[in-house]
Write a structure and sequence with these properties.
This protein is α+β, with helices and mostly antiparallel strands. Helices cover about 35% and strands about 20% of the residues. Strand 2 and strand 3 form a beta hairpin. The longest helix is centred in the middle third of the chain and has 15 residues.
């Protein structure tokens, strides 16, 4: 069954509609620092994530994990960080 909840996203002021590497770097560092030590209890693997720019002013956080359960746990944690 597919998870239909929206992907985590970062929305920011962006009059020129271009990617902002400094914003992406800052959020990547913050997210990494908070989830880098967390591993899947079943598979002993970490999660991978990427910030993908969507014009004009949004970065979506795409996550890749070893299993849906672990992905959901980490995405919830990221969501709490961003709220």
């Amino acid at each position: 069954m597919h998870n239909l909840k929206p992907m985590n996203k970062i929305v920011f002021q962006n009059p020129d509609g271009r990617p902002k590497p400094a914003i992406a770097d800052t959020y990547t560092s913050i997210i990494s620092a908070n989830i880098s030590e967390i591993k899947c209890k079943e598979h002993d693997k970490s999660i991978d994530f990427e910030l993908v720019f969507n014009s004009p002013n949004t970065y979506f956080i795409e996550t890749t994990a070893c299993c849906d359960e672990f992905k959901a746990i980490i995405e919830e944690q990221i969501s709490r960080m961003l709220s």
